[in-house]
Design a protein that fits this description.
The complex is a heterodimer of chains A (about 290) and B (about 150).
Chain A (H helix, E strand, L loop, with lengths): L14 E2 L1 H7 L5 E5 L16 E2 L2 H5 L10 H10 L7 E5 L5 H12 L5 E4 L2 H7 L30 H9 L4 E3 L3 H4 L24 E2 L16 H11 L7 E5 L5 H12 L4 E4 L3 H5 L10
Parallel strand pairs in A: 1-5, 2-3, 2-4, 4-5, 6-7, 6-8, 8-9
Chain B lengths: L8 H11 L4 H14 L25 E7 L5 E7 L5 H14 L4 H5 L5 H6 L5 H25 L2
Antiparallel strand pairs in B: 1-2
Helix pairs in contact in B: 1-3, 2-3, 3-6
The chains are: A alpha/beta (about 290), B mainly alpha (about 150).
């Protein structure tokens, strides 16, 4: 792949290379954060100096289906030694699904000095870069976060209903089988978290994986992404767009692509996603 | 735990151990140890490309399962996990092999996929949970089929 700065992204500063991370991992103004789907992966080896942020234990409220609130975020930042001015760099497995999810949650608290490592953990490993099992410890910080802002980059079901009524665009980033409702459950399993299959009416299906190269996990160039989202998908940079998947992790990646790589201004992630919509009573569904 | 009576002894003991670990780091360390013990299916049993008929459906770690009958009427379970990042799948494969291989098949057939939640707690995504449960379900299905075939 070409250099990140040569790919034509709207916000190239939001993406860094594996080289950049290796050079800056011990920079005191930078905190590398690994966030994975597989909770065991960090313990098997990680980028030197990288802290682990687990999406279930660290980012989610432990009682409600919601994210941590201001005090929880402040505690997390203090624990991983992040100050308001620290640049956080996320990477992880699954082509950075969970890294983008953590990045997105950090934006709910306005931590804008944030980046994603292009290609994630797979690229780092494929390049033979070093991993360590040493868990770093940083002096706790005093972090004063603003109240969580759910209005800018997050959508709730009522927002989706209004969006739908206004015939505004939605992007469903799940697989075609999930989008059409063909895949709802495994044999002998009651369900996959939703009672109904299909998609939100009017949503266009652009699977998250379209945005990354399957081998390297790197994001495609801006021109390639424009072809996928603007030319083929019909999404325009000034439109209000809501992205969703099953629980909001894959759509975080698409939200990142639209917002930072293509410069779309009004993209929100519906983290309730299909596990909420597919269980709601009396909402419209298409197959 | 009385409700665990249907679970084979070795697995029951492991679950009891895991139930008693409240520290997440300690639990993760134990599971990573299992993942390190994972041994892929020997070439004498199967070779790449592995047949789709052995693949665990919806498992994103690309797990495969084989069951080889023994003279005693039990099964030896073998696994492949093709995704190098599939550490949880490797840990579960090692656990299933260590606790269910050589166990009477009717006992293995009684093991249900909900053990995945007890092993990994709630700290797994729905997608990963489905894949891991699929591994248990495949082991259960193989044991049931073997038990049925062995009946007179």
């Amino acid at each position: 792949m070409s250099e990140i700065t040569d790919r034509g992204y709207a916000r190239p500063d939001a993406l860094v290379s594996t080289d950049w991370v290796q050079k800056h991992a011990s920079d005191p103004g930078v905190r590398i954060i690994e966030s994975n789907e597989d909770i065991l992966l960090y313990s098997t080896g990680h980028v030197a100096g990288a802290v682990h942020v687990d999406w279930t234990n660290d980012l989610n409220d432990q009682l409600r289906r919601d994210y941590i609130t201001k005090p929880g975020f402040e505690r997390l930042m203090s624990r991983i030694g992040v100050a308001p001015e620290t640049t956080v760099v996320f990477y992880g497995d699954k082509s950075n699904w969970w890294a983008c999810y953590a990045f997105w949650v950090f934006q709910l608290f306005g931590h804008t000095s944030a980046k994603v490592m292009d290609g994630g953990r797979v690229k780092w490993e494929k390049e033979g870069r070093p991993l360590t099992k040493d868990v770093p410890h940083f002096p706790p910080t005093t972090y004063r976060a603003p109240e969580r802002d759910d209005s800018t980059v997050r959508a709730f079901r009522d927002d989706v209903l209004k969006h739908l009524a206004g015939k505004k665009p939605l992007v469903d980033v799940r697989s075609p089988e999930e989008f059409t409702g063909q895949r709802l459950h495994m044999p002998n399993y009651p369900n996959e978290g939703a009672l109904r299959g299909g998609h939100i009416p009017g949503a266009k299906n652009i699977p998250w994986s379209m945005a990354v190269h399957p081998d390297s996990g790197e994001f495609k160039t801006a021109d390639e992404l424009k072809t996928i989202y603007a030319e083929e998908g019909g999404f325009k940079p000034d439109q209000e767009i809501i992205a969703y998947c099953r629980i909001g992790e894959r759509s975080s990646l698409t939200w990142f692509v639209l917002t930072y790589l293509l410069g779309y201004k009004k993209v929100r992630n519906y983290d309730g996603s299909w596990t909420e919509w597919g269980n709601l009573v009396n909402v419209p569904i298409e197959k | 735990m009385s409700s665990d009576n249907h679970i084979p002894e070795k697995l029951r003991h492991l679950l009891a151990t895991l139930d008693g670990i409240y520290d997440t780091g300690e639990r993760v360390a134990l599971l990573v140890d299992f993942a390190k013990r994972f041994t892929p299916v020997p070439s004498g049993i199967a070779e790449r490309p592995y047949p789709e008929s052995h693949r665990v459906p919806f498992c994103e770690s690309e797990a495969y399962v084989w069951a080889v009958p023994s003279a005693e009427g039990t099964l030896k379970f073998h696994f492949a996990v093709e995704n190098p990042s599939g550490v949880s799948a490797k840990a579960l494969a090692a656990i299933l092999d260590a606790t269910l291989s050589g166990t009477p098949v009717d006992q293995v057939a009684a093991v249900t996929p909900d053990i995945v939640t007890r092993i990994f707690r709630q700290n797994i995504s729905m997608g990963k949970g489905m894949g891991l449960m699929g591994m248990v379900q495949r082991v259960q299905s193989l044991a049931r089929a073997h038990a049925a075939a062995a009946r007179p």
